[in-house]
UniProtKB/TrEMBL annotation:
InterPro entries: Ribosomal_bS16 (IPR000307), Ribosomal_bS16_CS (IPR020592), Ribosomal_bS16_dom_sf (IPR023803). It comes from Sordaria brevicollis. This is Ribosomal protein S16 domain-containing protein. GO terms for molecular function: structural constituent of ribosome. Belongs to the bacterial ribosomal protein bS16 family.
Length: 106
């Protein structure tokens, strides 16, 4: 069975909060996961330890479990891939310019 690393949404309207979970690929987004390996809060907040006043999004992740699940073949979604690249578990994907299909020459 194919495993996915993906986000499960919690929180209320206009205040999302996500669990980073390992689940079977064919299950619903909020069904019971195999394991919860972290959390992601996409609402930017000020860091109490940063004196510049910059806003930060909160990512908490069990890196050893994330590396384990990737090692056994779990496929991360695009968003989870981006989050894992922030904490240096996966390399950042290159951004593509334009559309995927090449334009024909006239």
């Amino acid at each position: 069975m194919v495993l996915k690393l993906r986000l499960a949404r919690f929180g209320r309207t206009n205040a999302p909060f996500y669990n980073i979970v390992v689940a079977h690929a064919r299950t619903a987004r909020n069904s019971k996961p195999l394991e919860v390996i972290g959390t992601y809060d996409p609402i930017p907040k000020k860091d109490t330890y940063d004196t510049t006043g910059a806003m930060h999004k909160d990512i908490k992740l069990d890196t050893t479990r994330a590396k384990y699940w990737i090692g056994v073949g779990a496929q991360p979604t695009e968003t989870v891939w981006r989050l894992l690249s922030y904490v240096n578990i996966l390399p950042a994907k290159a951004k593509s310019k334009g559309s995927a299909a090449p334009k024909p020459k006239a």
